[in-house]
């Protein structure tokens, strides 16, 4: 172990902001379990681990990885949490999947239309990975998938499925031309009950913004709108949480 350099501390400060994450193509994983899970998965290149002065690391725990020590005051400053656990890691962003490569795949793709809550995005990523989704498409207006709170919400699942970002309408149009069927999670009266829908070999599941739902430009007549019906048959709750809705839909589609 060695003491973190001034340049490393400057980088950690910068990585709390999206524009610097994109510029450096790096992001931070914070928390003991999350760091351990990313190391165990081996899917993302981890450059270095940073610990606070009072964090104990057993010999050989992070074999092959450089461990750097930060003064506790500095660690608290660069950490995203109010009560940091004393460990974080800097990782390289994996390359995004190319649209052309995604177009020839089969399976289920999850697409987010302006999902803004980091907790929702992290849970959606984690759930999509659990059910073996081919990719996650993060449309414009969606929170950065490498935002510290999103990464923390994935509980170490960041990097476990490919990601593509961009204009969702353009991406969906291209994929439809390659035989992908679009299912829009929508609670409107014209939507079909999810339990009666049969997925195709190439299905895109779109979830909309927490407050406004799916953008009207995506709600055209050629796309299937599906809804998750209340078990009681009564709408005592206005709507489901976006991440919960995706979880239910993926379980339903996966079990067909």
Provide a descriptive summary of the structure in words.
Strand 6, helix 6 (118-130) and strand 7 (135-139) form a beta-alpha-beta unit. This protein starts with a strand and ends with a helix. It has two domains: 2-92, Ribosomal protein L30/S12 (60s Ribosomal Protein L30, Chain: A, 2-Layer Sandwich), CATH 3.30.1330.30; 99-254, Alpha/beta knot (3-Layer(aba) Sandwich), CATH 3.40.1280. Strands 8-7-6-11-9-12-10 form a seven-stranded parallel beta sheet, with helices on both faces. It is α/β, with parallel strands linked by helices. The protein has nine helices and twelve strands. The longest helix has 13 residues, at 118-130. The radius of gyration is 20 Å and the shape is elongated.
Topology:
Elements: E1 2-3, H1 6-14, H2 18-24, E2 26-30, H3 32-41, E3 46-52, E4 66-70, H4 72-78, E5 87-92, H5 99-103, E6 107-112, H6 118-130, E7 135-139, H7 148-153, E8 163-166, H8 168-176, E9 181-185, E10 192-193, E11 202-207, E12 224-227, H9 242-254
Parallel strand pairs: 1-4, 3-4, 6-7, 6-11, 7-8, 9-11, 9-12, 10-12
Antiparallel strand pairs: 2-5, 3-5
């Amino acid at each position: 172990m060695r003491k973190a350099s001034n340049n490393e501390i400057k980088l950690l400060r910068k990585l709390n902001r999206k524009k610097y994450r994109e510029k450096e193509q790096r992001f931070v994983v914070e928390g003991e379990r999350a760091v351990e899970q990313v190391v165990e998965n081996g899917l993302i290149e981890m450059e270095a681990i940073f610990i606070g002065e009072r964090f104990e690391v057993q010999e050989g725990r992070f074999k092959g990885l450089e461990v750097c020590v930060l003064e506790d005051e500095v660690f608290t400053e660069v950490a995203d949490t109010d009560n940091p656990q004393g460990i974080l890691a800097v990782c390289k962003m994996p390359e995004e999947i190319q649209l052309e490569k995604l177009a020839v795949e089969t399976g289920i793709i999850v697409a987010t239309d302006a999902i803004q809550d980091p907790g929702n995005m992290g849970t959606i990523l984690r759930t999509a990975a659990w059910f073996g989704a081919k990719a996650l498409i993060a449309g414009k207006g969606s929170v950065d998938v490498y935002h510290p709170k999103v990464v923390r919400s994935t509980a170490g699942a960041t990097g476990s499925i490919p990601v593509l970002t961009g204009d969702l309408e353009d991406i969906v149009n291209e994929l439809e031309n390659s035989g992908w069927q679009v299912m829009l999670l929508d609670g409107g009266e014209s939507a079909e009950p999810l339990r009666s829908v049969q997925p195709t070999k190439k299905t895109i599941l779109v979830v909309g913004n927490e407050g406004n739902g799916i953008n009207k430009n995506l709600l055209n007549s050629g796309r299937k709108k599906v809804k998750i019906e209340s078990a009681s048959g009564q709408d005592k709750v206005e709507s489901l949480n976006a991440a919960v809705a995706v979880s239910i839909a993926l379980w339903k589609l996966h079990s067909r």
